[in-house]
Amino acid sequence: MLMRTDPFHEFDRLTQQLFGSAPGTWSRPAAMPMDAYRAGDEFVVCFDLPGVDPAAIELDVEHNVLTVKAERRPLPTGDDVRTQVSERPLGVFSRQLLLGDNLDIDNIKADYDTGVLTVRIPVAENAKPRRIAIGRTGGEPREIEA
């Protein structure tokens, strides 16, 4: 139903941890952690985006590819501001998911609360399990689960 489309994500994460990167020098957008699960007739995907302004989040679907883009901006600067510790990554975070044909991409819903973007993708009606009537010779039709 959902497929991870970035095979180099783990390699990039490991390289970034080993060698570090100065702000603005990492050539690929940083990935955002996520959880995905099916709950009834919908898929739910939760992305961790702590400290990101909801106005700095973009969610797009094109050709069954869901793209989430977010930007964590730097803290205020000025003559009277001196950074003591800066460990949280800044910049653009991006993630793409390939959505199966059995999902209803026209009815995707998203909410952002306490630093977590939750995207709900319903299963398409034609992909839901349904009962099919089976006729019997000399008897009433009987239903079975498909």
UniProtKB/TrEMBL annotation:
It comes from the Bacteria. Residues 25-137 form the SHSP domain. This is Hsp20/alpha crystallin family protein. Belongs to the small heat shock protein (HSP20) family. InterPro entries: A-crystallin/Hsp20_dom, HSP20-like_chaperone, Small_HSP. Pfam families: HSP20. PROSITE patterns: SHSP. It comes from Amycolatopsis acidiphila.
